[in-house]
Design a protein that fits this description.
Layout: H1 3-15, E1 24-25, H2 26-32, H3 39-47, E2 60-61, H4 74-85, H5 98-101
Parallel strand pairs: 1-2
Helix pairs in contact: 1-3, 2-3
């Protein structure tokens, strides 16, 4: 496996462990995957997920508690619906309370 594919798989493995009803930031995933602060690399890996993948990509949001997909896009609508279905509530400003819903894997080590 080449280096890029290996990084994608490491990221996907971390994302696969985010529990139902919680979210993680791109930065949390990068840190947990051993990539330091490479949050943008997490986004790239998620865009490369196979279409039929069951990895819960929708549970990854930005550090401001917001969805990073383009506003009004089908992907963003899908992400929001999946999160709401899991019981995650959005604030009036369309952000998610990371203190309430954030998955802090690094605190469990």
């Amino acid at each position: 496996m080449d280096y890029e594919a290996d990084i994608n798989h490491r990221i996907w493995q971390v994302v696969a462990t985010i529990p139902h009803g919680t979210v993680a930031t791109y930065g949390d995933i990068a840190s947990s995957a051993g990539l330091g602060r490479a949050a943008r690399r997490v986004g790239l890996a998620l865009r490369r997920l196979p279409e039929a993948s069951l990895i819960p990509w929708h549970r990854v949001i930005n550090s401001q508690g917001r969805l990073s997909l383009p506003t009004g896009s089908l992907e963003q609508q899908t992400q929001r619906i999946r999160l709401e279905t899991e019981g995650i509530m959005f604030r009036k400003n369309n952000s998610i309370d990371l203190k309430q819903y954030g998955w802090q894997r690094h605190r469990h080590h």
